[in-house]
User: What shape does this take?
Amino acid sequence: MTDSAYEPYYVPHSSKLPIFASIGIFLTVFGIGHILTDLSADVDSAFGMATLMSGGLVMGLTLFFWFSKVIEENHKQLYSDQMNRSYVWGMSWFIFSEVMFFAAFFGALLYVRVFVVDWIGGVGDRGPSGMLWPNYEPHWPLLNTPDPERFPAATGVISAMGLPLVNTLLLVTSSFTVSFAHHAIKEGNRKKIIQWLTVTVSLGVIFLFVQAYEYVHAYRDLGLTLGSGIYGTTFFMLTGFHGAHVTLGTLMLFIMLCRALKGHFTEDNCFGFEAAAWYWHFVDVVWLALFIFVYVLGG
Assistant: This one.
């Protein structure tokens, strides 16, 4: 390799941030495990909740200082093209891992709905289920659980044409608005960047409020809970984890809005925004799959 082809690769100085990130992850996972253990024992989980919140706080502060350092290094033009490519590949693999994450959950839903419910209900060789639940008739959504005393079923399901349709319209619209913000960056129009990002973040916040109201309605009016059989479990597993991803995506876009207000992003230096936009489009696509398989076909 000739000297002219040599490309320096920036190596950052040593940092204590990875240690704090490890502590935050440990507290978060420990808190979640403690909460789940207490829920199974039907006892109060104040300690688990406090641990979870502490872990979230530590992780939030760690990521804030970590990303601030990355932004500072980028503005100092310390990164080479090779370094920038590593960020692109890193975000690409991260989104791919998220695709596999949701693929596992959708696979669980498909397995339960297509195979398990029918097996328990008598399709094919029932095996031990014929002795355990001889009168059970399979039906999805599962509003008649095989063991109603232990797992009381919900009294109804959430209509796809109600709040879920509203949230679908909100997220589909937000995909367009974040794309408009991207085009504004390419045009160098700072005012439009801020306007469209503000709209996108607002749509994400509204989505979360609508989903929270939907959860209250499900728990209070329909008896649809995590304890209402496999239908309730898969419903909250899929929609809950997606809601967590919307929360993260909204936070990412809010940070991009703050950066836009400070004058960041140019036509050839805006991967931070593009990474957040990729993630937001991924969240939108997952919701469309949720809307179809959980609400339309599963309701």
